[in-house]
Every structure is written in C-alpha cells, then in structure tokens.
# Entry
Amino acid sequence: MYKRLYFIILILKSMLILSCEEPIVESEPKSIADINFNYLQSSKKLFVSALISPSYMNTSLDSVEVLWKGTDQQNTSDTLKLFDDGTFGDIISNDNIFSRRIPNSSSAIANVIPASAKDSVFLIIRSTYKNRKVESDLYSFILGNIHPKIGTVVLPSSVDRPTSNSDPNIVNTIKFTVTASVSDANGIEDIKRVFFRSYHVGLDSMMNSGNPILLLDDGESSAGSGDLQKGDGTFSRTISISENALIGTYHWIFEAQDLSNAYSDTVKKMIIVK
# Structure
C-alpha cells in the first residue's frame, strides 16, 4: 500500500513540474532593421534612419526614437523622435523608414560631436508598440569624410590661337567655357573649391606658375565666370586664349577640394592650342 502511495505521489509531482514549465513562444522577426547614420559636415547635421516594422507581436507601432550617445557609449542618451511623414528630414513618407536630421548643436542635443572628432559615434533605435518597447543593439558608426567626386569635364579638344592684331595696343583673344560637374555625399555646399592646373607637354612645364585656375558655381556668367546656374554642382570658367599663347599640347588636371580639405581623384584632359 505504501509503495502504491509512493508511486502516486511521484506521478503527481511530475505532473506538477510539467505544468509549471513556460510555454514555448515563437519569436517574430525583428522589428528594427537597416539602421543608418551619416554626419552631414557642411550643414552640421546628423542623419539617422531605420526600417521599422509597423507591427510586432500582434501590436501596432506607436513611436520610434533614437537614443543618441554621441562619441562615448557611456553617455546619457539624447532621446529624439524619428519620423515617417516626410518632415524633419524624413525623405519619403509612409515607407516604414523612420528618419530625422538633427542639428549638431547644444540647442538640440547634449551629446554634440566635437569638431575634432574622428572616431566612432554610438546610438540605439527604440520602437514602441503600446506598452512594449523594442530596442536594437548598440550601433557604432565611424566618423569620416567622403571625398568629393568630379564627373563630366567639358572643354574643346583644340583651339586655334588668334592671329596678331595690326594694332600693337590691342591683343586678340578667343574665349570658351570649361565646365566640370562635381558631387559630394555631404552636399554640394561642402565643396570648398574646384580648379585645374595647366601643364605644357612640349615644354615640360606648368603654366600660370603652377597656380590653380578656379572654376566657380556662382551663376555669374555675365561677370566672367561663365557659370549659368548657381549651386547646381556644375563649376565653370571662361578661358581666354590670346595671340601670345604658346602653341602645343596641354594637359589640364582637374581637382575638387571639400571643407575638410579632402581632394577628389584627379581628372586629366588634353587640349591643343594650334
């Protein structure tokens, strides 16, 4: 009898233990993905974005925030709302990509990026679904400058040097416009200057004492730059070739420089003065 009672007790204990085990919950896909950060140096603004699921665990999304820690992951976070309505720097509304442009200023955030910073910055994305908060891992992004790029450069392949004027007080010239399209991931306003240097192949010598000849994006075509529209990324210069110019083959070497003093790759074009 005691044996039978003992076995009954063991069976009851086993049933009790099994009934106390937590049920297995199937995890849903992560609600936060594709986290991106960019520091727009020219405008001194931070850009943060993340792809957010509109629902999680059968609960609809209420809000999305970035917990911004700046250059030290131990900093107390700045908590800033992200948007998906085309405002505050959000590019496309209702695409589930929540983003924001944030001034790198003490008036907007406590964790301002110092001007001398070249290391990493840290952030967390948090999405809220009613009372459930879902946070990403701590993300780090390396601060760095993206070099400008020179695209299409337009200039004639050859020009004819003008003939001498019979009046020694008058110098004949011909004029043409040189253009270079330039881009910068940090914005066209991050471009400090665009220029070229002129090298005479036959003389193995730099022209203009080796000094750069600037191209402008000022829209002041009538003032001599030859540029048609200000701020469109096409830099221009009206070039004059006089009757005293040296004939021969020239290499014109184009470069762009940004506000961080980073240079583009060089673009070399050839022009022949006949």
Remarks:
- The chain has two domains: 32-142, 149-273.
- The CA atoms of residues 116 and 210 lie 32 Å apart.
